[in-house]
Structure formats: C-alpha cells, structure tokens
Amino acid sequence: MDLGIAGKKALVCAASKGLGKGCALALAEDGVELVILARGKETLEAAAAEIRAKTGAKVATVACDITTPEGRKAALAACPEPDILVNNAGGPPPGDFREWEREAWIKALDANMLTPIELIRRTIDGMIRRRFGRIVNITSSAVKAPIDILGLSNGARSGLTGFVAGLARKTVKHNVTINNLLPGAMDTDRLNSTIAAMAKNRNLTLEAARAERAAAIPAGRFGTINEFGAACAFLCSQQASYVTGQNFLIDGGAYPGTF
Fold this sequence. Notes:
- About 45% of the residues lie in helices and about 15% in strands.
- The chain is α/β, with parallel strands linked by helices.
- The protein has a seven-stranded parallel beta sheet with strand order 3-2-1-4-5-6-7, with helices on both faces.
- Helix 2 (about 40-55) links the parallel strand 2 and strand 3.
- Helix 1 crosses helix 8 (about 225-235) and helix 6 (about 190-200) crosses helix 7 (about 205-215).
- The model has no long low-confidence stretch (mean pLDDT about 95).
C-alpha cells in the first residue's frame, strides 16, 4: 500500500538501534527523507548507512542527547520543519520509589515527558501551516498496565499520554495527528539486558530465561523492530488522517484486558 508520504521529512529520535531504528527504516522504505538522532555517533552513522543501502533514502544524522536543550537545538537546526516527528528516548531505570529523590524524578520527566512536549511545541505550528503533520510518541505498555518497579517510567510516560490526549483533539482538524505507540516485549538490546539480569539473579542460562519470558506472551515470541516500525509508518500515512489521540499497544497479546 502506498502510504502517500514519499518526499515528506521526518525527525526520528533515538534511531540508531531498537524501536527508533525500526521506525526510521519503515519510513525510509516509503520514501521519507530522514534526520535521525542518537547519542552514539558511531552506531548512528552505521544505522544511517544501513538505511541508505536498504532503501536509497536520504538520511542525515545528528549525534546529540535529545533530552538536553543543546541536543534539541542541534536536532531542530538539522530538521527545523519536519512533517513527521517520532519522539523516543530511553526509559528511566527500575527500582523502589523510596530510593528516588527529586533529581531522579526530574530526570525521568525531562527525558520521557518534557522533551517530547518541547519538540512538539517547536514543530507543530509548521505542521498546521502546511496542513500535514504526524507525531508519534514511543511510550511503553506500562502506560496501559503499570509495572511496579518502573514507577519513574509509569509516571513520566503517563504524563505525556495525558498531555497528548488533549492536544491531539485540537490539531486533527488541520490534518495534524498525534498518537502513541506502546511497545511490550520487543526484541531489542534493552530487553536483552533485562533478561540477562533476570537470568543471573535466578541462575538460569540466557537461553532458558529468554524462552521463559517469551512463553509468557500469548504470541509465544518477542516483537520485532520491523513490526513496530510498520505500525509507526501507518500512523504517519495519509490514510491515518482520521486517527488521533490513540494509544496503540504492540505486545503480542500480553495485556489481558478488553479495553
């Protein structure tokens, strides 16, 4: 299906690997011009080269920390008027809320709530003026089903979700949509590190720990970054202009609820 976004410009955060890279690759396959961001320059350049080789797309890179004012300035200098914005940043660490001082909360809010809001603030008026805009926030399945040890993530990402819910209803009449993608267990470095820690704590082999974790998912496996990217690309399409303010759970059926 032609998504109708060839030639559009996208700013994709944390796109050197994992879910951000999956989104960048899917958009590039549909002819979108990319500016991709990440902190590690070497890994970022390797991802850009791979995407160019696979798709022939135009891909520029900015090595920066998007959670800082300097990082956002560099990103927006490279792509001041994106048609598509994919917000993404690594999640805060797990733990017991009793251990978190105010600084830990501020850091989590900066990364997973305030940075996406600031990028939206800086780009949305241009989208409205051009009568096209697609904003996709990569959040977490913890927004739908909170995970007790991920209190920092639960709080910060839920704050972003609440903000988006109101704004998305104001912009859709201008053909500017805002939606959230909620990943469950996706086969990424972050998941692998979590499983490795579990394996060590329980004296399991890595293979046994992976198998146990996957067996707990109704789909019987982990999601892929390509599947995730395809969902992102659809939300960015011309065909998705009637979809806004939604939270798309991509978790292989792990969430047990009806709603």
